Amino acid sequence: MAATGHAKWTGSVEAGSGTVDTGTKSLEGTYTAASRFGDGKGTNPEEMLAAAHASCFSMALSLILGGAGHAPESIETDASVYLRRTDDGFEIHKIELETVGNVPGIDEDEFKRHAETAKRGCPVSRALAAVPDVSLEARLAG
Fold first, then answer.
1. What confidence tens digit (pLDDT) does each residue in 1-28 have?
2. What backbone torsions phi and psi does residue 49 show, to the nearest 5 degrees?
């Protein structure tokens, strides 16, 4: 099964704009150079990568915890994706994941071990393996 997305850009980078949506239309938005490189209104590719990474990681961690006998009540993950200019253009150079789990019957160390496994193994993490700095802060709720 393929997941789909669609984007359309019109005009120059400086003055143009684009629209983006998922195949299900559950995510739709506009993007501009100002929303990507400044504080302009709209979304940007890095924000969508952050959402994809946070959601994939949370699902992977839930699967891993359940397989270890610790069914989570909830897992909340924030992802921050950083873009910078280099001599060759732009690059995503850092991703920060911060996750909080409400998981009965598990201690902090075991939770962190499972979170590290999810960080290495979720499909989006693996797709973003070229990013040189991916950090994870994992803790239990409460």
1. 788 898 999 999 989 999 999 888 788 8
2. -60, -40
Note the pTM of the prediction, 2 decimals.
0.93
In degrees, rounded to 5, the angle at the alpha carbon of residue 3 between the alpha carbons of residues 73 and 138 is 30
Q: Are 108 and 139 in contact (CB under 8 A)?
A: yes
- Written in H, E and C, the secondary structure of 5-36 is EEEEEECCCCCCEEEEEECCCCCEEEECHHHH
- H helices then E strands: how many in the chain? 4, 6
* pLDDT tens profile 74-88: 999 999 999 999 999
Task: Enumerate domains of the chain plus CATH numbers.
Answer: 5-37 (no CATH), 45-140 (3.30.300.20)
- Hunting for tokens 């997305």 — which residue is that? 5
Output the six-digit token pair for 101. Answer: 């789990």
